Amino acid sequence: MIKNGAFFKEYHVREEKLPAKQSKVTTKVAEVMAWRDGKRVGFGTKEYMGSTRWVRLTAQAYTIYSVPDAAHPALSQPPPPQGLGLAATDVEELSSLVNNRTPVTVID
Fold first, then answer.
1. Residue-range domain boundaries for the chain
2. What number is the average pLDDT over the span 1-16?
3. Distance CA 80, CA 64 (A)
4. Are β-strands 6-7 and 2-3 bridged in parallel, bridged antiparallel, or unpaired?
5. b vs e for 58-71, b when ≥16 Cβ sit within 10 Å of the residue's Cβ?
6. What's the CA angle centered on 103, arms 53 and 45, to 5 degrees?
7. How many CB atoms lie within 10 A of CB 79?
8. DSSP string, 27-74
9. How far apart are the first and last CA of the chain?
10. pTM of the model
């Protein structure tokens, strides 16, 4: 992640479910999504706290989704059929740092 033109943080993919291998994809964030008990929940609702976060990108088939980690051993939302799985803690952090104008580059 780049913030104010400087490198900020890199997130590591734990699970990859993509249709075709590409070495680099340049896109942007389409929306941040939150799930709780199988239902989408909105930012600011009481259900948002403790929800499973996803970041959907504008490039088709690219959704950054949460996979279990030490802080989130069980997630209420199963992963989408395609996308990139990151540690749930990383997706939670990432979802708070981006908006629908944030550019994203996925590299192999």
1. 11-107
2. 79
3. 9
4. antiparallel
5. eeeebbbbbbebee
6. 30
7. 17
8. EEEEEEEEEETTEE--TTSTTTTTPEEEEEESSTT-EEEEE--SS-SS
9. 15
10. 0.87
